[in-house]
Amino acid sequence: MPQRAATEYVYARLSLVKADMPRFAALCDAMRVRLKVCVLDNGNQELVLSDEIGGESVRLTFVGNDDRYTCLLSCRVTKPGLAHALNRALAAFRGDAMVNRIYRGFVITYHYLDGKVARIVEKREGDPAIIFERRLPGQPAADSLEALFRMRTVEERIAGLRREVDELLDRRNRAADAADIAAIDLSLKECSLRLFALEA
Question: Which of 125, 172, 194, 198 has its CB surrounded by the most CB atoms within 10 Å?
């Protein structure tokens, strides 16, 4: 079996209710990952996850909004324990992500939607090959990447996201309060990541 060189989180999004934070800490403890929590002046939380063996760490910033914390993550890790903990968090807290598992000579890309693997694509020197794709109810099976791009549901979701971005930009232009602007900026960042995933 080829040895993984690195795991790259092209993007990942976790959204937790505040009551879930102790569960997140317990998951890290169970995975033998050290966790350091810093509460920032604005009420957001910064979590530093560190691999116990190799000392590699990842910094996650959870932005508070009402009763939820949202984290947008993009990073590259080389320690399997840390990658495993992040993958478990995606599953446990129903996150969305695009994750590259990098091996010598090829890359396997995992697309997570709502905490579950929706698609696995292998990329070698030639064309990408879909290894697995979860078929959603009422949606035809896609035999190729070209078929995925042409699916009307994806086009409609992209159009809807673009409308949402336009509305958020209008709200941001009218906003005066710094907290409102920060919340709108977070929503814009989430929309851009979702657009990136759909348009990729």
Answer: 194
Instruction: Please give the Cα distance from 65 to 61 (Å, whole number).
Output: 13
Place of tokens 């560190």: 50
pLDDT tens for 132-170 read 888 655 544 444 444 544 455 566 677 777 888 888 888
Domain, as residue range, for 199: 138-200
> Do 103 and 46 belong to one domain?
yes
CA distances from 39 to 43, 48, 81, 167 (A): 6, 12, 25, 31
Phi and psi dihedrals of 137, rounded to 5? Answer: -55, 135
Contacts of 140 (CB under 8 A, 6+ apart): 151
Residues 156 and 189 both lie in one domain: yes
The closest alpha carbon to 68, from 112, 21, 36, belongs to: 21
Tell me, yes or no, whether 126 and 144 share the same domain.
no
